[in-house]
Amino acid sequence: MRTLLITGGTVFVSRYAAEYFAQKGNRVFVLNRGSRPQPQHPNITPIVADRHALGGILKTHTFDAVLDLTAYTRADVQALLNGLGRFEDYILLSSSAVYPETAAQPFAETTPCGPNLHWGAYGTNKLAAEQYLAVAVPHAYILRPPYLYGPQENLYRSPYIFDCITAGRPVYLPGDGSLKLQFFHVRDLCRFMERLLEQHPARRIYNLGNPQPVTAQEWVQLCGKAAGRPVQTIGVDKAAHPAYAYFPFRDYEYQLDVTAQATLLPTLTPLADGLAEEYSWYRANPAAEMRRKPYFDYISREIDP
Description:
about 300 residues, 7-stranded parallel sheet
């Protein structure tokens, strides 16, 4: 049993992680501002505070590990480190957005990082957070996943396709739907962090993800299979309409080299199984918080008026 601090704990990845580790018998503290319902588990204790105004609220605690799943900037990491007392391990959830789109693919952990035209400030801020942490806590682990998915997803990705399926609407795809996408199940993320805490490998930075990407068309059809319904898809002229206005991913494909990940976690959740699990959660939680985007409005107004 470990004592863990997880930043967030109320939405998607951080909530899933808090519940995952609590169910494994760990003592879990979640640090958040208390603006959303807290996870309900006897092993989870909320610490309600803003990471940028911690004062001494964490100084008396000792943590076996800090799982920083909500840091977006250098200032976020710096503020948390300044507020912590004693801790052993530190894991930062970064992003594949730290790799420039111009670099050779698949991106390896040794690929030089830098600005990415498609991700903008999100990627450069994540990189700055990584760089600060690597100096401040040299033994920290940094994780760079692709698109995360699974139960409790509040990002309008798979749930958008499920909404299309439920409403009997077609899914509009960029071009011919050959855009390649790489995914990683949120449970596999938790399993990987668990392996890090168990084995303490010497490597400090890991790409994460399913080894094989899928096309946008394949992903949509897998969502349909998860829902048990056929899905009609319609291609959209990429020169006439920006993909992100009607589809939940940018028209940007990349692939991560996850060879190092496989040494610690060789078996992953098959994408079809993970989407079926997410669809079951989607059906059981119709009132879940969701960051819906106006894809339907754009389609009705600009593509299929």
